[in-house]
């Protein structure tokens, strides 16, 4: 999968010019998850920003469903920004 269109269609990155988007793509890695796979656990430090390319992720807190992250939405960005 070409990650450039995925990142270009993600609202947080949509305003990047072509050169910045190319640099971002050079840092990006694809990670595939199957239904039921865990991206990371609540409380784990967030060192990466993930973007849902297709499908959706379940978000839970203490085992309770609190919502979903859908297509072209970022995950983990606050932990990376806050540090």
Please specify the SSE layout and strand pairing.
Elements (H helix, E strand, L loop, with lengths): L2 H6 L9 H10 L22 E2 L5 E5 L2 E6 L4 E2 L1 H6 L1
Antiparallel strand pairs: 1-4, 2-3
How are the strands of the biggest sheet laid out side by side?
A: 1-4
Q: What does the main sheet amount to?
A: 2 strands, antiparallel
Described by the principal axes of the CA atoms, the overall outline is globular
Order of helices and strands: HHEEEEH
Strand content: 15-25%
Number of strands: 4
Q: Give the CA-CA distance, first to last residue.
A: 29 Å
Written account of the structure:
By secondary structure, this protein is of the alpha+beta class. Strand 2 and strand 3 (64-69) form a beta hairpin. It has a two-stranded antiparallel ribbon. It has a two-stranded antiparallel ribbon with strand order 2-3. 27% of the residues lie in helices and 18% in strands.
Summarize the structure.
The protein has 83 residues and is of the alpha+beta class. The chain is 27% helix and 18% strand.
Task: For this entry, give a set of tags.
83 residues, alpha+beta, two-stranded antiparallel sheet, 3 helices
């Amino acid at each position: 999968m070409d990650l450039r269109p995925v990142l270009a269609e993600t609202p947080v990155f949509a305003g990047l010019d072509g050169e910045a988007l190319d640099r971002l793509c050079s840092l990006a890695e694809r990670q595939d998850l199957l239904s039921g796979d865990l991206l990371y656990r609540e409380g784990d430090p967030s060192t990466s920003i993930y973007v849902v390319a297709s499908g959706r992720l379940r978000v839970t807190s203490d085992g309770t469903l609190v919502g979903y992250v859908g297509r072209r939405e970022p995950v983990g960005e606050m932990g990376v920004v806050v540090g």
